[in-house]
Amino acid sequence: MNKGADSGCEAISTVLGSNLKRIETTFANCSDLSIVYMHYGPGLGYSAFSVYYNSLVQRKEYNYLKETLQDLMTTQVGQGTSVRPEELFRFFEQGGASTHTAVVLDSFEQAVSDVNDGYIVLFFDLWNKALSYKALGLEKRQVTEPTTEPVVQGPKESTIEELNKNIGMLRIRLKSPRFKMEKFSVESETKTEIAYGYLEGTVDPEVLAEFKKRIHRLTCGEILETSYIEELIEDSPYNPFPQVRYTERPDVAVAELLNGKIIVMVNGTGSILICPATFPELMQSSEDYYQRTLIASLIRLMRLVAFFIALMLPSIYIALSTFHTELIPTVLLLAVLNSREGIPFPAIIEALIMELFFELLREAGVRLPRPVGSAVSIVGALVIGEASINAGIASPILVIIVALTGIASFAMPQFNLAVALRILRFPMMLFAALLGGFGLMIALLLLWLHLSNMRPLGQPYLAPLAPFKPVQLKDFLIRAPLQSLLRSPRQMHLRKPKPQPKPQPKT
């Protein structure tokens, strides 16, 4: 196998000393670089050297490869004579089989790139090419249970930071030649390898064309994680609502491929990006399809209620206690007034202070070490809540509302959707403080118009609500029985060919 040189690439010299000098200059001050000399041919009169990073290549891999090469370079199979350089070069150029598969390199730049990728590269005297052997031996995280998407029932394996293994976990589930995976590398210092996949015949051709147009703009720049790609391909980086989904579960990725989605993976990170995302899909969990219909439908309805609680509960409290006290039952109103007696702040300031405290505690619980973080967030919430009530800064009912709002945001299946609710909660509170219930209605109307106009990669964000498609509602508010959902992807998504106009008869 050959890797051809581009027209602008510098060729490999036939003088071994010249290649060695260029290698030493290129990798100067790299203390983990190893250069090993060897001799071969009649009377061991010919020289060669191998170059690799000992921090990337396992020693046992190198020793095994070295023994194989020594046998190959000193003895011809079946002849028992020493191998001459021209015979050795012809063997590799014609794709001769050996224990390790060798790649013939034509350019010096490609040799440098392979060394950086964890290959062992060999240079020979009198040959203007090099050999490259894959020998990457870094320790990788093993496949474990998902940490961000745990389930009671269902598969228990998660993606890891190695791109090829992640692709393999998808291939073992989706055994179809229509499952396409395309790779490319970003021209930067990191040379990050990116792969995206789709199910041919199921994905919308217009969506795929627009996606390829956007992702192939990533010709340069440092891409270190999958979330970098999200901001580079989304329609608006200032939109609080997520336009893609993330998962670390291979079964979820395969299910979305069957639904006509596009997945993106980056070497070095374990999360899979799924695009385009719609609002109903962000409210769904993989476990919805591993539970019985009645249980899954009830959980989905609870999530919808949790969505409105996380978005509007503090705003409703502010609107009712400030503008619409006549809507509160008398007994409850008296309880609210008694709890607010002596509070020096209006309801909006009181709510903003408590929400700010809650967000700080949540962020502190995430950033601290895991054994300490959970204790700080729980104990801190109890201590601050109790101290705020005793100090007369906040009322007990507001502490309960803030706690319920936080718990409801934890019920969102997608973390990026929960973050969007945390952001939108504050403008909703301001609208409620300015105009009460009318302000809430205006805010909800503006929010609905914004969501209706969103078109990530050209797909309606609120489908099947806008545009309204009653047939698809059986997998939105409720989860219909699987008998009505399990169809072939071709039946659900394959576009019918447009009818061609009939040729007109010649007159």
From TrEMBL:
InterPro entries: Spore_Ger, UPF0353/GerABKA_families. The keyword ATP-binding does not apply. GO terms for biological process: spore germination. One of its GO terms (cellular component) is membrane. Signal peptide: none annotated. The chain crosses the membrane at residues 301-323, 397-421, 428-451. It comes from the Bacteria. Keywords: Membrane, Transmembrane, Transmembrane helix. PANTHER family: LEUCINE ZIPPER PROTEIN 4 (PTHR22550:SF5), SPORE GERMINATION PROTEIN (PTHR22550). Belongs to the GerABKA family. This is Spore germination protein. It comes from Paenibacillus mucilaginosus 3016. The lineage of its organism: Bacteria, Bacillati, Bacillota, Bacilli, Bacillales.
